[in-house]
Amino acid sequence: MQAYKKYFPFRIKFMQQLIFATNNSNKIKEIKAVLKGKFDIITLEEAGIDIDIPEPHDTLEANAFEKARVIYGLTKKNCFSEDTGLEVQALNNEPGVKSARYAGEKRSFKDNIKLLLTNLQQEENRKARFRTVISLILNKKEYQFEGICEGYIAKEEKGNNGFGYDAVFIPADSNKTFAEMNMEEKNKYSHRKKAVQKLIDFLDGLEH
Ligand code: IMP
Fold first, then answer.
1. Where are the domains of the chain?
2. Backbone angles phi, psi at 47, to 5 degrees
3. How do residues 105-122 score in pLDDT, each as one tens digit?
4. Are 186 and 130 in contact (CB under 8 A)?
5. How far, in Å, from the CA of 83 to the mean position of ligand 1?
6. Reported confidence tier of residue 30, pLDDT bands at 50, 70, 90
7. Among candidate residues 9, 5, 31, the one with its CA nearest the CA of residue 20
8. Ligand 1, pocket-test mutation among 44, 94, 99, 166, most atoms within 8 A of CB
9. Which residue, 38, 74, 95, 118, has fewest beta-carbon neighbours within 10 Å?
10. Residue 51: in which H helix or E strand, if any?
């Protein structure tokens, strides 16, 4: 032991591996940018898992748990998932949990935005928020973290970056849509970034 200490006087700290239970390459990019250097994020593809993860429930919380449980069931490895919805005040918080399939099973970003703008055509109240729920399974225990970004829905699409509803969502305190921002700028406001920060704080807290 003493000899070991002589040659390795420092503590080798391995980066904790976490599987991110999503097939969405945009989410992977965003989350890897935030967790870079802190955690070794393994995508489903890298973990050799090729499934369409179910989202059968009517809350973000239940869907996030479901996704993490499915991946944990397959890998028995620490993992996390996230589920996000756009909640529009004038539409009774729709599309919410149905955000991906708002305009149908095709899950087309363009069609979803078109339907949203049509449904809000006569509406003065454009208030909306993105809400992300992250589910973590760590050493067989389950945890959840929430991140919210308040804002409003623009009258027309602007910008080419991002995905989903980015081209029509303007965060409060900004005059640009998410699609007009680069990833760094989006992460200053982002619901997902806020939820991930809670995840990081939680994991950091466990290490001390
Ligand atoms: P999911 O079920 O968590 O994959 O997300 C549901 C849908 O919400 C996605 O298909 C996107 O249309 C939308 N969405 C999620 N996150 C964002 C975001 O950060 N910006 C814009 N749209 C998003």
1. 15-205
2. -85, 0
3. 999 999 999 999 999 999
4. no
5. 8
6. confident
7. 31
8. 99
9. 118
10. none
